[in-house]
């Protein structure tokens, strides 16, 4: 069956995207992870993947032209397959019914009657309804988890209403339906994930037959998520609930809490009824859950009349053996996938160098006396790296399979550890910015990362990455290259070290740097020259200000 590819929602303010480039043409073979086009949004130019396999049968938007969010931009299917019925839904975000399956397939698995709905019935339903799909909210996203629904079936929906909050591999973002009507169908429960482009909701005129739309999609006319859950087995229904109900308090009233606060409370096993809210009207927000400290359980009272032990009592364990299985967040799944691919596909080699930071320490102290924002050593490393990359463009490159892309701009990614994993906000044109501008940008991006407020343009487009564990007491380490970069710099802490110089021993402040390089695009001598330039900047910081 042919599959439609729609204009994804690539930023929270995007309403349409301009096709900057098509990487495939009609007749080309398409794989699930192929980049089929580049789309220019209101904030950045990003790559679009189709997540389907087959032959590109149709391109609906020419290069340089714009398409609304969720509008059909391409169709992929079998060579020669008739796809024109899929265009009947126009921009109503639905698909026409596929051709009937062969009888042999019909016999192999019983299907509901709605699966044979004809194109006319689907087209009629799509006149009155809009299908809402899981949007592509980051360049590495393949699925999104519904954190919270802000609307329920039967609610009135306006085109600019936020329907749901979706957790991607990098952030929690809002999904807007861009449709008016009544919420007729919810296809994914809170806490469950949906693939990119999968149906998550249907909005339209009351009474519209959504079953024929779902049947055409291949879902078999599934009931809304609230009704689709299978009945619990007797054993399961008899078991006590593992977590407390968070939507009502002990008096049966509604708990005023943000969706993220409820989610965090559930993950931490906290009864949200016991949390005091600091938001408007006593609303519980994330910081209330983070700072919640449960009251200590009363100590067990000693038995009256018990004689003191004459010898050490026999050891008795306080509990039983056990473990906790932690479900993977979307971010952790992508970290595992991308870094595994990097480590086992890119031939890494490592170069290490010691930096005398005595002059950098003095320079930082003097700079901070006049700087409008506080300059950190990491800011100085970012600036020095950016200037060194400008002199050594071979390091500022990406391995593209059959060619090397040498970037003319310097965008430095600075890795940040957050609760769910690791994210890399990007400081753009770092070679052109002053230390105070870099410091201001970095602080803003780190704050947004920790609050899960980063937008796709904030964490995409890096040409080089820095990972700093020095502030956590790590002397030195090696880092895995962050695709699509060709190198990553691992920064250790500054440590006072005794060295010998001209027959005299003295204490100096040493910082250890390790450069991980992709040998396909960066040779050893190239990496060594880059580190030598970086070392000269950091050991004589005044040269960065010229």
UniProtKB/TrEMBL annotation:
Cofactor annotation comment: Binds 2 lipoyl cofactors covalently.
Record-linked InterPro entries: 2-oxoA_DH_lipoyl-BS, 2-oxoacid_DH_actylTfrase, Biotin_lipoyl, CAT-like_dom_sf, E2/Pdx1, E3-bd_dom_sf, LAT1, PSBD
Segments crossing the lipid bilayer: none
Gene Ontology CC annotation, any one: pyruvate dehydrogenase complex
Domain Peripheral subunit-binding (PSBD) span(s) in chain numbering: 256-293
GO biological process, one term: pyruvate decarboxylation to acetyl-CoA
Keywords assigned: Acyltransferase, Lipoyl, Pyruvate, Transferase
Gene3D superfamilies per UniProt: 2.40.50.100, Chloramphenicol acetyltransferase-like domain, E3-binding domain
Catalytic activity as recorded in UniProt: N(6)-[(R)-dihydrolipoyl]-L-lysyl-[protein] + acetyl-CoA = N(6)-[(R)-S(8)-acetyldihydrolipoyl]-L-lysyl-[protein] + CoA
Region spans: Disordered: 86-112, 224-258
E.C. code: 2.3.1.12
Cofactor(s) needed: (R)-lipoate
A Pfam cross-reference name: 2-oxoacid_dh
Any one GO molecular-function label of the UniProt entry: dihydrolipoyllysine-residue acetyltransferase activity
Biased composition regions of type Low complexity, renumbered to the chain: 93-112, 224-244
Class in the EC hierarchy, top level: transferase
Role, per record: The pyruvate dehydrogenase complex catalyzes the overall conversion of pyruvate to acetyl-CoA and CO(2). It contains multiple copies of three enzymatic components: pyruvate dehydrogenase (E1), dihydrolipoamide acetyltransferase (E2) and lipoamide dehydrogenase (E3).
NCBIfam families for this protein: PDHac_trf_mito
Family, as annotated: Belongs to the 2-oxoacid dehydrogenase family.
Name this polypeptide is given: Acetyltransferase component of pyruvate dehydrogenase complex
């Amino acid at each position: 069956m042919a599959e439609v590819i729609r204009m994804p929602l690539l930023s929270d303010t995007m309403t349409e995207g301009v096709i900057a480039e098509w990487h495939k043409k009609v007749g080309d073979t398409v794989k699930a992870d192929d980049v089929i086009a580049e789309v220019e949004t209101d904030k950045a130019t990003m790559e679009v993947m189709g997540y389907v396999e087959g032959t590109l049968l149709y391109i609906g938007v020419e290069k340089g032209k714009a398409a609304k969010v969720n509008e059909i931009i391409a169709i992929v299917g079998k060579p020669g397959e008739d796809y024109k019925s899929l265009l009947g839904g126009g921009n109503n975000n639905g698909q026409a019914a596929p051709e009937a399956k062969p009888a042999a397939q019909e016999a192999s698995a019983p299907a509901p009657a709605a699966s044979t709905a004809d194109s006319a019935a689907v087209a009629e339903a799509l006149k009155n309804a809009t299908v809402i799909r899981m949007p592509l909210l980051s360049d590495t996203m393949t699925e999104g988890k519904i954190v919270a629904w802000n609307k329920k079936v039967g609610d009135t929906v306006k085109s600019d209403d936020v329907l749901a909050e979706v957790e991607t591999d990098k952030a929690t973002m809002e999904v807007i339906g861009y449709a008016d009507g009544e919420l007729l169908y919810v296809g994914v429960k809170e806490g469950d994930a949906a693939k990119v482009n999968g149906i998550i909701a249907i909005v339209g005129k009351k009474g519209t037959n959504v079953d024929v739309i779902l049947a055409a999609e291949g879902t078999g006319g599934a009931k809304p998520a609230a009704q689709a859950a299978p009945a619990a087995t007797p054993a399961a229904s008899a078991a006590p609930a593992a977590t407390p109900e968070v939507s009502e308090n002990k008096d049966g009233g509604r708990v005023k809490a943000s969706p993220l606060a409820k989610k965090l409370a559930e993950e931490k096993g906290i009864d949200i009824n016991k949390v005091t809210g600091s938001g408007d009207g006593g609303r519980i927000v994330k910081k209330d859950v983070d700072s919640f400290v449960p009251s200590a359980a009363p100590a067990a009272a000693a038995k009256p009349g018990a004689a003191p032990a004459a010898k050490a009592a026999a050891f008795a364990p306080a509990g039983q053996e056990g473990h906790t299985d932690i479900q993977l967040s979307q971010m952790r799944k992508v970290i595992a996938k991308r870094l595994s691919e990097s480590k086992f596909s890119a031939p890494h080699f490592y170069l290490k160098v010691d930096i005398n930071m005595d002059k950098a320490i003095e320079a930082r102290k003097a700079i901070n006396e006049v700087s409008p924002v506080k300059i950190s050593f990491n800011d100085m490393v970012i600036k020095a790296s950016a200037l060194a990359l400008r002199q050594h463009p071979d390091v500022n490159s990406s391995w593209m399979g059959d060619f090397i892309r040498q970037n003319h701009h310097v965008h430095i990614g600075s890795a940040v550890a957050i609760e769910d994993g690791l994210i890399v906000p990007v400081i753009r044109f770092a070679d052109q910015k002053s230390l105070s501008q870099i410091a201001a940008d970095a602080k803003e991006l780190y704050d947004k990362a920790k609050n899960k407020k980063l937008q796709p343009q904030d964490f995409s487009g890096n040409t080089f990455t820095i990972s700093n564990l020095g502030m956590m007491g790590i002397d030195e380490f090696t880092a895995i290259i962050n695709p699509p970069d060709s190198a990553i710099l691992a920064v250790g802490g500054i440590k006072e070290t005794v060295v010998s110089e001209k027959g005299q021993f003295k204490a100096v402040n040493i910082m250890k740097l390790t450069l991980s390089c992709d040998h396909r695009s960066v040779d050893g001598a190239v990496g060594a020259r880059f580190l030598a330039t970086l070392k000269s900047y950091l050991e004589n910081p005044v040269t960065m200000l010229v």
